[in-house]
Amino acid sequence: MVKLTMRLKVFRIAGWALIGRLSLPAAQLSGIVVDASGFTIPHATIKIACAGANRSGGTDGQGRFHFPTLPEGSCRIHIVHAGFAAFEEELTGRDTVLRVQLAVETHRDSIRVTADGEDAPSPAPEIGTVSIDDAELRKISNDPRVWVSYAKLLAGVADAPAQLYVDGLPASQLPPAALIARIIVNPDTFSAEYSNGNYTHIEIITRAPARQFRFNVGTDSLGFGGRDVLAPGPNAISHSINGSLSGAIPHLPLAVSLVASVSESVDPVAVTAILSGIGFPSLDSDRSGTFGSRSLSLSPDVYYYPAKELQLHFSYSESLSVGRNMGVGGLTLMDAGTDTSFGNREGRFTFHGVRKALAYRGGFVIVRSEAGNSARNTEPGLNVLGDFSTGGPALLKSDSTHLAWSWKSVIEPASGQSWSAGFTVAGTDDTRHDAPNPGGVYTFTDLDSYAQFLTGSSTAIWTGFQGNGSLHFGQLNVSPFLQKRLFKSSHVSVNAGVRADAQSSAGVFVSPRLSAAVGWHGFVIRGGAGMFVHNIPGNVFIRAIQGDGTHLTPILIDGAGMDAASQPTLESAPLVLTSLSPSLALPRELIGKITLNRALGRFTPGIEYTDTRDWKLLGSQRFAGEDGWMDVIASNRSHVAQRIQSQLSYAWKAERLTLSHEWIHSYDNTDGPFSFPEQQNNLAAEWARSSGVPRQNVTLAGSFKLIRPVYLTLTDSWHGSAPYNITEAADPEGDGLFNDRGGRPRNSGNGPAFNSLSAYTSRRFAVPEKFAHAIHGMTVGLRCDNLLGNRNYLSVGSVAGSPAFGQPMVAAMGRSVRLWFTFD
């Protein structure tokens, strides 16, 4: 009996233990998903695959997720969101709280942080990097140009030259606002997939239309203000309207959208030319006026997704814009304005697919641009250095066609970003037709020489053209690349890559890259070094073709009178030929960078140091030849720069604020491929501070919620004094360059500082329920530019001894207020 009692007790204990085991709570999982900037990613798709069963869900509007029950056994979590690389990892432990940072599709180094609670700090974003979704951008404006400007300010790279990509492919224009899902600035400096170097990388991620029918319409108009601060005059006027339709084909994996926009603007301009009353018909020009433009664009898009593993996107956009009285302002009188027209057609195809263990992405883009310029005055051009510029330009009419295409293909693992390989093949084709001004352009050193010219003296330097104004040029570029993650742990990531760039007209260069990211006691340290190469612009080769002696070759006559354009004079006039140096090579760049930052609650301070070395940069030199002059374009210039950027970021829920300061030490001896030294055989004398680059810049950008649902966004940009070149009104060499500095070093002038504060506010309104199936709501906003009314001068007179020396020539617009609204 005792043994039986003992057995029953054992069975009872085992039974209760089994019941207790079966009634134990299942594993739980919760957490938050953030992007490279440390901000949450709403509506990301989450799938959890376990041995027993699967779970699926997603993040809420604050980027958080929660799975109250998970099957026992090993599980893997898979997180995806448009514009980001898929995240996949093995889950361990129970009641786990995760904080996951998604890497963008361009292979950013990422450090994954796990914590015991949701209040743990996010991974510190890298300085100069930002990722913003359309939900935040639509609180600022309905203009994609404003979105990009805000993103650059938020990243602290407002002034750096930028290269635009849409879904990983190069783009010539921004897509419509209705199609933009996210804007990412500088996703990865050292990725071998791109060759941006110190250019700001702007990546636009587009969205697929919703399956249900959607309608969108918006407008943007200038309320008042926008005067030219250099002279009293009318306000600026601008209007735009845009709309879109989107939906899906029933029972087919096909979604379509159609976006159209129309805009028109008229801007005031001040003419600050110095006129002494010397009689000439073209000098009776108005001292102030306007220039304007009108544009129209249309963009149909088709998204095809026959399976979850394959997504295709076809788009076509066409735009046409015309400008009136362009190029006027400063010393350029109204008579010297030009009318312009520009047409752009872009076809784009992108794909993203997964097959077995590999993922494929890439696409093809082709752009055809047509530009035309027509002079508003066909008289001979007149240019008195430092005083005025009027009459007709050197070319009375110029028409050009530019065709560019690019094919890109990338292969990588379907899960994770351990490696990637691919190539880009791109080509360009240019055609030009130029009609020169038969009267040419007369240049005078001062008003006295101009007055003597009017009385019959030969005191001018005359420039014109002769030959065939039609030409054609094409070239091909091929760039294979390989990117590999060398090491990856929860606190360390090391990547390496190599890229080869081959340009049919300039040779081949191989660029190795190495970068790393380390998490250490809450700090995030990132660094890297790499070589970059930039293709030689097509206009360099076009200039060489034009000046080969058979095409449109310049003519230069020193000591010209009124009969300079006569045929007997032109037959013996000296030519200005152009040639490329036999040693012409691709410009190279070496960049080293290190960043240190740390998230401290809602604040993230950081500092970054960048060292840049450029060589084989392009520049021109003019030498005396048998028939006149010879311009040689060579790869014999260089540039060095050190940059220290400090940044403080603040983030809390939907609010963010970034304050950036940069100190720049930048020196070079060129202002581009068509810049000439003062002394043609003394390039050492050209070494000076880089033109237009201030030593210090400060930018601020932030978005705040005033009261639900009213938002306020502020942006401020301050730029210190930037150097500019001071020249004398003289041509001692008689070569027509007019770049004599009178003993001054290059870029000895210091231009004015610049500061502009802008404010944006908006409010979201609900629409009546009967319209909610097509329109979700209405957003109304106000935009105020140059809120403090600063007089921001963009350029000053640079000719020493002239009446305009040191005086403001061109200025940014004054204070303006703009109203906009969008139904979507």
Features:
824 residues, 22-stranded antiparallel beta barrel, 5-stranded mixed β-sheet, globular
3D architecture notes:
With 824 residues, the protein is mainly β. The protein has 6 helices and 48 strands. The strands form 8 sheets. It has a 22-stranded antiparallel beta barrel. It has a 5-stranded mixed β-sheet with strand order 9-12-13-10-11. A 5-stranded mixed β-sheet has the order 22-21-25-26-31, with helices on one face. A hairpin with a 4-residue loop joins strand 33 (588-598) and strand 34. The chain is globular and about 100 Å long. The model is unreliable at 1-25 and 106-124 (pLDDT under 50).
Helix and strand arrangement:
Elements: H1 2-23, E1 27-34, E2 45-50, E3 54-58, E4 64-70, E5 75-80, E6 87-91, E7 96-101, E8 113-114, E9 130-133, H2 134-137, H3 144-155, E10 162-166, E11 169-170, E12 180-185, E13 200-206, E14 214-225, E15 237-248, E16 254-270, E17 288-307, E18 310-326, E19 338-355, E20 358-375, E21 381-384, E22 388-390, E23 395-413, E24 419-436, E25 441-444, H4 447-454, E26 460-466, E27 470-488, E28 492-503, E29 507-520, E30 523-533, H5 538-546, E31 553-560, H6 567-571, E32 575-580, E33 588-598, E34 603-624, E35 628-652, E36 655-668, E37 688-689, E38 696-707, E39 710-719, E40 723-724, E41 727-728, E42 749-750, E43 754-766, E44 777-785, E45 793-796, E46 799-800, E47 808-811, E48 816-823
Parallel strand pairs: 1-7, 10-13, 21-25, 32-35, 41-46
Antiparallel strand pairs: 1-4, 2-3, 2-5, 5-6, 7-8, 9-12, 10-11, 12-13, 14-15, 14-48, 15-16, 16-17, 17-18, 18-19, 19-20, 20-23, 21-22, 23-24, 24-27, 25-26, 26-31, 27-28, 28-29, 29-30, 30-33, 33-34, 34-35, 35-36, 36-37, 36-38, 38-39, 39-43, 40-42, 43-44, 44-48, 45-47
